[in-house]
């Protein structure tokens, strides 16, 4: 079946092992994030075999899968819980990231009903402007959470780069460590996790400049694609090519490079522009924006260029293709994080494990 995504699990497992060892050698217990591959069973089992003790995801539906795939391994809800899903959070997540007292009260109430102790990591906004309490409000939030039944404060954390693009540095990560020490001293508690961000914090770990006191990182893209995400650099001794998208040519013709007629909006409300290259050999492959973030694809074949896409057609300039092509030929593409996320989510793309 095409389109299909080929997954090289041994390469991903190698990356996971390299990164886990890097973290452990520096006193850090990492969480491995499964959301980009939607808790794929083969990939998840490889993470557990490598020794990861915490599996993290932003969707409760995936945590439910993780519980069945890896009993005994801690599950972590990355996205702040919705009030409407509190029952499921308590059932399927051992730990959740939080910033809202209303949600925390609901978690406490449900945990009491379920006779469970639920661990929480209080997120702090240190400039990226996604989730998190403001630093000046942290003490009051911690004080109230400590009074809630069946909740245990496991740590504090920060998210960086995902929304605002703010790079982890000595200032924001150092501030997180300072806040953790303040909370531990003021309330006479010990925090298991000082969670210093995601794969974008790895560059400081690699450079041996990560502030002392960070005890946890949440690793997703680095594991599956072998890249730190602050600057997009390849991590030494890891693979970047563990995924390959394959799609089949359904039309191959020589056509003009510029449409004929008055140009209006395309199917997605954009006003497209075109470069006149004269006649070109154009191929259409059977995949489109419904399945993949097209901008995150890179053709494997030399001389093949992506020139556009609609919801279910990807259009290529194959004039300079390095091999003979015909209708039915399969074209391969490397994927970035955004493309991988959409492909793994699409039910129309078959997943093949190697």
TrEMBL record:
List, in alphabetical order, the Gene Ontology terms for molecular function in this entry: alanine racemase activity; pyridoxal phosphate binding
Q: Which SUPFAM superfamilies match?
A: PLP-binding barrel (SSF51419)
What keywords are annotated for this sequence in UniProt? Answer: Isomerase, Pyridoxal phosphate
Q: Where is the Alanine racemase N-terminal domain?
A: 7-224
Cofactor(s) demanded: pyridoxal 5'-phosphate
The record's Gene Ontology cellular component field reads:
cytosol
Q: What is this protein called?
A: Predicted amino acid racemase
């Amino acid at each position: 079946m095409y389109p299909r995504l080929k997954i090289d699990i041994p390469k991903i497992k190698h990356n996971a092992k390299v990164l886990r060892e890097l973290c452990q050698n520096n006193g850090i217990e990492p969480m491995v994030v499964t959301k980009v591959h939607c808790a794929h069973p083969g990939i998840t089992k490889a993470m557990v075999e490598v020794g990861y003790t915490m599996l993290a995801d932003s969707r409760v539906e995936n945590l439910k899968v993780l519980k069945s795939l890896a009993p005994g391994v801690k599950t972590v809800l990355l996205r702040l819980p919705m009030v409407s899903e509190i029952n499921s959070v308590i059932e399927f997540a051992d730990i959740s990231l939080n910033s809202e007292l209303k949600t925390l009260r609901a978690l406490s109430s449900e945990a009491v009903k379920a006779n469970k102790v639920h661990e929480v990591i209080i997120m702090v906004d240190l400039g990226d402007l996604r989730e998190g309490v403001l630093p000046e409000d942290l003490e009051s939030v911690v004080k109230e959470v400590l009074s809630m039944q069946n909740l245990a404060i496991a740590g504090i954390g920060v998210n960086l780069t995902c929304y605002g693009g703010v790079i982890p540095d000595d200032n924001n990560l150092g501030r997180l460590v300072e806040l953790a020490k303040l909370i531990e001293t003021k309330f006479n508690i010990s925090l298991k996790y000082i969670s210093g961000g995601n794969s974008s914090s790895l560059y400081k770990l690699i450079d041996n400049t990560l502030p002392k006191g960070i005890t946890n990182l949440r690793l997703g893209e680095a594991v599956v694609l072998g890249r730190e995400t602050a600057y997009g650099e390849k991590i030494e001794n890891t693979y970047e090519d563990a995924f390959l998208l394959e799609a089949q040519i359904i039309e191959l013709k020589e056509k003009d490079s510029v449409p004929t007629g008055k140009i209006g909006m395309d199917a997605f409300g954009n006003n497209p522009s075109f470069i006149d290259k004269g006649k070109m050999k154009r191929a259409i492959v059977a995949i489109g924006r419904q399945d993949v973030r097209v901008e995150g694809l890179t053709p494997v074949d030399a001389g093949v260029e992506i020139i556009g896409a609609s919801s279910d057609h990807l259009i290529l300039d194959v004039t300079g293709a390095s091999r003979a092509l015909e209708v039915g030929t399969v074209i391969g593409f490397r994927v970035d994080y955004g493309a991988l996320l959409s492909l793994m989510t699409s039910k129309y793309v078959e997943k093949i494990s190697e």
